[in-house]
Amino acid sequence: MSSVRGEFSSRFGFIMAAAGSAVGLGNIWGFPTQTASNGGAAFVLVYLILAFCLAYPALMAELVIGRYGQANAVSSLQKLSSKPTHKRFAFFVGFGGIVCAGLILSFYAIVAGWMFSATIEPVTKLVGMPGMTHWLSTQSLGRDLFFTSLFIILTIAIISKGVENGIEKWSKRLMPALLSILFLLIVYVLTQDGASKGLKAYLIPDFSSLLNPDLLVSALGQAFFSLSLGTSVMIIYGSYISKKENLVSLGAYVTLIDVLIAFVAGLLIIPAMYVAQAQGVDIFAADGSLLSEDTLVFQVLPALFNGMGEVGLFVGFAFFALMSIAALTSSISMLEAPVSYAVEKFALKRIQATWIIGALITLVSFTIIFNFNTLFGLVISLTTQFGQPLLGMLCCIFVGWLWNRGTLLKEIESGRPDIAATWFWKIWPWYIKFVCPIAIALVFIHSL
Ligand code: PHE
């Protein structure tokens, strides 16, 4: 470790950690189902454009803020300008992001808990524990409380070990595992009856849906969620990157991996839905629209796995293990955002800060579980539809308008001395100043 506050030890380590944050339930579940309900390949096309032209520049803004600040999100933002009003604004954006990350974790942990219990369920079937199988497969308060806590405790265990021995070490183990399971499952599903129909629906665009304005809103929201933007997570991960690294290409790798895995996950989920349909499981509602997302994940796919007999137990296990791993590498980044702030601001030991904040988030999760019908959807839309785009936009405004241009150029130059000669430097500052904030604002206003 080359500094007291921790640093990623290698390029690969950073890429695995940041891609681990980005690749999550949003990619493996959100993207394919959004694609299926928004005109297939037309959505994929719009998503790709938005991810590279809007989300990538916004990701760069957050990474560069963090790497310059070398501190938690609030302090990093406050270093960008010395004006008192700007400092207050910086606090609002940084702290807002931290709260947003904590709130996202509180609902994400519930969903990840479901994934956990669904992972264990096939195992209990295989070893013949019908009572346990029944408990795991029936939604109950007890089950949800147990698995949500278990998931948060695992997240705490990794984060309490710090940047290099916690986040980096585990991301380097879990991400390759995730990729392997994903590819094995795709190979399996694509050899089943009905899969080719799914591939067609996924890959052949229905351009008439491009005219639907909701498509843009969904695609941008999905891109922001997927790249973990507007939650200060990428600011804090940026702060652990060495000054020797080329930030521009690191950000590009993370975006590329994130988009690629979302796309590849679609090759699994959409054909799997059609395979299920070929086996007589309903995937479309009476009006021809797709069944709701949770119906799909917790009814359609399990029905599909059940229909496969013994093999289905293994496939089901692999599928939900994949979801659980994807969730874990994302949740550690969500917890790191508030923990890094608490450690630096209140001079707490990392282990203390991690347990205290972990406990607080568990309390919020429990509150959501107890008031599921009112709170679950509310917290999701508050954070992902409002918080993330708004805070992401404010980060762009910070970098584009309030930060001294010369200092910004110097920060990006660090690790990339020829940056001023590249197309990135010719386009990006202009982008971050005008295009990103205006585009995000427009989409945001439309979504209201
Ligand atoms: N990007 C993650 C996903 O796609 C979710 C996430 C959001 C992670 C915000 C961190 C911060 O599932």
Protein described:
This protein has 448 residues and is an all-alpha fold. It has one domain (11-447): Hydantoin permease. It contains 18 helices and no strands. It has helices at residues 11-22, 25-37, 41-69, 73-78, 84-126, 130-137, 141-159, 162-190, 195-203, 213-226, 233-239, 247-278, 293-307, 310-346, 350-370, 372-402, 405-413, 423-447. Helix 16 (372-402) packs antiparallel against helix 18 (423-447). The site of phenylalanine has 16 residues, from helix 1, helix 2, helix 5, helix 10 and helix 14.
Helix-strand string:
HHHHHHHHHHHHHHHHHH
The CATH architecture term is Orthogonal Bundle
Helix/strand structural class = mainly alpha
CATH class: Mainly Alpha
Average of the residue pLDDT scores:
90
- Which segments are poorly predicted (pLDDT under 50) over 5 or more consecutive residues? none
- Radius of gyration, in angstroms, nearest whole number: 21 Å
The helicity comes to over 70%
Largest sheet: none
Number of domains: 1
How big a fraction of the residues is strand?
under 5%
Q: What ligand molecules are bound, each kind once? A: phenylalanine
